[in-house]
Every structure is written in C-alpha cells, then in structure tokens.
Amino acid sequence: MVRYVMDTSAWVEFFRGSPEGKKVTEYLFPDPDETAILVTPTLVITELKSVYIRGGKGNEFTQDLERIRGLSKIEDRIDEKSAILAGTKHGNNHNKENRISYVDCILWTLAEEGNMKVLSTDLHFKSCPHAVYIEKGDK
Question: Which residue of 74, 81, 134, 137 is 20 to 30 Å from 10, comparing CA positions?
Fold first, then answer.
C-alpha cells in the first residue's frame, strides 16, 4: 500500500481541481479499489489555513478540512530527533536556488522516518528521493 505525507501544495491543488490536482487525485486513488495511506502533519493544516485566508476562501476551509480528516490521518509527530534532522536538511539544502522551508524539511524528515513519500507540487521536492513531485503545468 502506498503511503504519503501530504504537502500543503498537494492539498491546495487537489481542492482547486487543477490539472496538478487531478494528478494528486491519481496518486491518492491509484485504482477503484485502493486508496493510498495519507498522513497530514498539523503544520500543513496551519499552512493551509493561511493559504485559504490569504486567498479570500477562509469560509471554505472547514469543509475542506473535514475532507482531509476523512482521507488522511492528521498527526503531530515531530520530536527532538526529527527536529534536529529537519534542521540539518534545511541547513544543507536552503540556498538562493532552493528556498525550501523549515516545514517542508520537516515533511521530508517525517517521510524518510516513516518509509513514506512527500506528495508535493513544490519545485524543491523535484530531486528529493523521499518525494513524489508533481510538476506545475504537467497535463
């Protein structure tokens, strides 16, 4: 069974129904009888709420959060060891060309520790071995 740590960008595109969101849907539901195992870290919920407010769609957040709860397990799994590993990833990968955030380094760490993949449309995950990168504009 496929297991993903969900990135904010994947949820955003999923709910928009964009071409990238359709690709996300293909990963979430690989065939009619199978649904991928999904984990949504609480930090993603924080980012998602901000995206909705900034986009003027704050009133849609509660409904979409209910859908997230139905499709994934919302977890807060960061501990001291994971925080240190994520900080190391951030220090080694954050530069002018790759503006990876602390949150994305945490997702990467959680995926690595849980033998999962981050599902994302963020470019900095393109070459990450623990991610499935969905390219923007990919049809």
Answer: 81
